[in-house]
Each structure stands twice: as structure tokens, then as C-alpha cells.
Design brief:
CATH superfamily of the largest domain: Spore Coat Polysaccharide Biosynthesis Protein SpsA, Chain A
Oligomer: single chain
Helix content: 10-25%
CATH class of the largest domain: Alpha Beta
Number of domains: 2
Structural class: alpha/beta
CATH architecture of the largest domain: Alpha-Beta Complex
Shape: globular
Largest sheet: 9 strands, parallel
């Protein structure tokens, strides 16, 4: 069976990280988000794949090319404008021909068992399949109504919990007839062709869709910045210990630690897994890397630093005596010595983050900063919980940052100095 991956979107809710890359290329544990999905497809014996790309698509196409190095056959289709999931699927018509086909949203972290069980249900029942997953917050998803295991309706972001909690998981098997129905699907109020509207239309015309209920622990939708920390945690939980880099005497490794070739851990470093340390990284001496930390490639963590439950992208330098906790830090950032990221409010309330101008509850009691690429931070700077720092911003020395910093701006502290003569006793 052929698969179609929808990976054209920008991921505006993941700003500032997506100002320089598509969300599908944000790395987790050494691999882009999209690569984890491709590996899951391959492990499920789905090897012919069409990726629908759009925003900054050159990064996707250059990295994955034709898929040969992963044992896959990959082709691409370009979505000129973000005209909806239905429109994106419609671009695959020539690729899949008259066969049934699998569709997966490209911003999912899924266990291969989901793909295998979906294909198995389709083979057994001979019907289109829609995967559903129980969620704690139905108001944020499209909720699927079932009669026994058959799809009856899909309600987008319901205002009441009474409709149930089975969310559309973004994994489907469609028949080729879906292409005709997509052409007949009217635009949604936001001007897009939504595949959920197509499915509802087909159900109303007596096309049966069966369901596959999957476990929440096997599935994750990465839509908001703090979701990256949970996704990184899930990826690292599946990592095995593999030490290929240089480990000096006096380094202590505890638990599952993956160190790529070309990385270096200096004496006195204490690493408590699961932790991923990419090639070219230089850690220590006398550092503490705490669980669920990913240092991608060429990251420098200086003397006396602590990094906890954080995702640090390529080429970032964390200067000595700094603390980074529960944060996502972009590529090629530079932390001056003694920089501190706060990750806990004084009142212990959940940390709120501004998404598209609206303050949202992250649901996390501990959350540090979300930082774009190429940020410069002066010595002794402090960043408060939930702050977002835009790409290319500068934070001056000894500044305490309480609010989001826009891209390509600077924040400095003006200090009044008083000079006088000492009085000697």
C-alpha cells in the first residue's frame, strides 16, 4: 500500500522555531520529526511514499531526496498555498491511481503498531479506516462520533464534552473515490477544503468508514512549542545506550545515553539518561545533563552547566555556569556565562505561553523558554518561564526578560552608575 504524508504546513503555532524551518524538520533525538514518521512507515512495511510539501519545502526535499538511504521510495507533490488537508490529499490522485492508500499527517509521532493495525483492519473489513484516539481536552480536536465501530459524524472542536472524547488522529486509509468527493467538498469558513468535511459527506452518502481506536501513549500531535518536549521525551524513551564518542576519565553515565561519534564528554560530566548527544557536541567539564535532554549536532555545553529536559538544536553554545531547564532552544544561539532560564512560577501555577497573541495554558507546571535560531544572550541574563525569544534577537547582560522578545530586536538594561570618593577610616 502506498502512503501520502501531509507536510506542507508552516506550523505558525510553533513560532519562532518555524521561522527558519518547516515544523516537520524540527529534530528530536537526532532525527527530524518527519524522519521518525518515515521510520515508522518502513517498520510497518509501507515503503512507497508521496510527501506533500509547501512551506520551506527545499529543506524536506534535500534532506530526504528519493528515500533510498532509508530503504524507501519517496516522491513529492507541491501544495502552492495552504488550502486544507482535503486539497493536499487531492494532489496525490495521479500517484495512487485506482488503489486504496494510507494518509498520515506529517506532524505526528506514532508507534509503528498504529500503521500496522490500521492496514490490518482495512484488509480484514475491506473498508476505509479513520483512526481515533481518546483525548483529555476534546475542545481542541475534531471529535469522531461512532456507532459501534463505524463513523457517524465528526464535530470540530466541540464546546461540550457530551459528544465524547475520541479525536481524529490524522491517520486514514482512503479509497480512490475520495478524490471525486474532495472535488465536491465546499470550502470551510476559513477558505480551505477539509478532508473531515469530505469524510462526513461520504458518510452521509452511505459510504462506510470503520475506525481504529489507538492508545494515547502510541500517538502524539505536535502542534504547540511545549509539545516538542513531550515528543522528545517519547523519542528518547525508545533510545538505546550507544557510546561512540570520546569519553574522558571521570565522566559518569547513568541510564540510557546515546553519544554519537565525534562528540566529546569531558571529565566531571554527569549524564543521567535518557539523553541524546549528537556528533560534534562538546560537553563539560563538570556538567550535569539531566533526563530527556537532546543535544543535537555541534552543541557546546561549558564548564559547570546544568541542562534539564531540554531540546537544544545544532550549533548552540551554552556558556559556563548556565542553567537551561524545560526549554526548546534553536540553532546557533549563544548563552553568555551565568545565563539562567527560570522554569517554575513562584505561585506554582501552570506556565502560560503566548500563541498567536493569545496567552495559553501550557498545562505544564515547569516550562522554560522557546527560542528561535541565532539568539545572542549576554552574561548573567535571566529569562522567565514561558517567554518566547524570536530569531536573531539579542538579550543584553544582566537583563531579566519577562515578556516575549520579537525577532531581530534587542533588549538592554540601562544602568545608572554613581561615582564618588571612598571615605577612609
Amino acid at each position: 500500500m502506498k502512503a501520502v504524508i501531509l507536510a506542507a504546513g508552516e506550523g505558525t503555532r510553533l513560532q519562532p522555531l518555524t521561522s527558519t524551518r518547516p515544523k516537520h524538520m524540527i529534530p528530536l533525538g537526532g532525527r527530524p520529526l518527519l524522519e521518525h514518521l518515515l521510520v515508522a512507515l518502513k517498520e510497518s512495511d509501507v515503503k512507497e511514499i508521496l510527501i506533500v510539501t509547501g512551506y520551506r519545502e527545499t529543506q524536506v526535499r534535500t534532506y530526504f531526496s528519493d528515500g533510498v538511504q532509508w530503504g524507501l521510495s519517496i516522491e513529492y507533490s507541491h501544495q502552492e498555498k495552504p488550502l486544507g488537508s482535503g486539497h493536499a490529499i487531492g494532489l496525490a490522485e495521479d500517484y495512487v491511481g485506482n488503489d486504496n492508500f494510507l494518509v498520515v499527517y506529517g506532524d505526528l509521532v506514532v508507534d509503528p503498531s498504529i500503521i500496522r493495525s490500521t492496514v490490518r483492519i482495512h484488509d480484514q473489513e475491506g473498508l476505509p479506516v479513520l483512526c481515533v484516539v481518546p483525548v483529555a481536552n476534546p475542545q481542541q480536536y475534531g471529535i469522531v462520533l461512532l456507532k459501534e465501530d463505524r463513523v457517524v459524524d465528526i464535530i470540530e472542536k466541540p464546546t461540550s464534552n457530551d459528544v465524547g472524547n475520541l479525536a481524529n488522529a490524522g491517520v486514514y486509509i482512503f479509497p480512490p473515490e475520495v478524490f471525486t468527493e474532495i472535488q465536491r467538498t465546499p470550502e470551510s469558513p476559513r477558505g480551505e477544503i477539509e478532508v473531515t468535511d469530505t469524510i462526513k459527506q461520504m458518510v452521509q452518502q452511505n459510504t462506510e468508514y470503520t475506525s481504529n481506536q489507538i492508545r494515547p501513549e502510541d500517538w502524539m500531535d505536535v502542534g504547540r512549542p511545549w509539545d516538542l518536549l513531550e515528543a522528545n521525551r517519547r523519542v528518547l524513551e525508545r533510545c538505546c545506550s550507544d557510546i561512540r564518542g570520546g569519553i574522558e576519565e571521570g565522566v559518569y553515565l547513568n541510564g540510557r545515553v546515546h553519544v554519537e561519534e565525534g562528540a566529546k564528554l569531558r571529565s566531571g560530566a554527569y549524564v543521567e539518561g535518557p539523553v541524546f548527544i549528537g556528533s560534534g557536541c562538546d560537553v563539560g567539564p563538570n556538567c550535569y545533563l539531566r533526563p530527556f535532554t537532546s543535544l543535537e549536532r555541534n552543541v557546546r555545553v561549558g564548564n559547570g552547566c546544568e541542562v534539564k529536559n531540554s531540546l537544544i538544536l545544532d550549533g548552540t553554545h551554552i556558556g559556563h555556569l548556565s542553567y537551561v531547564g524545560d526549554s526548546v532552544v534553536g540553532a546557533h544561539c549563544n548563552f553568555g556565562a551565568g545565563s539562567t532560564i527560570a522554569n517554575l512560577r513562584l505561585d506554582n501555577a501552570n506556565v502560560r505561553v503566548r500563541i498567536k497573541g493569545e496567552a495559553m495554558d501550557s498545562g505544564r507546571r515547569k516550562l522554560g523558554v522557546i527560542m528561535g535560531d541565532n539568539v545572542e544572550i549576554g552574561i548573567g541574563a535571566q529569562l522567565m518561564p514561558g517567554v518566547k525569544v524570536g530569531t536573531g534577537a539579542w538579550i543584553g547582560p544582566a537583563v531579566t526578560v519577562y515578556e516575549d522578545v520579537p525577532p531581530e530586536t534587542f533588549v538592554m538594561q540601562k544602568q545608572e552608575l554613581i561615582h564618588g570618593r571612598r571615605k577612609r577610616r
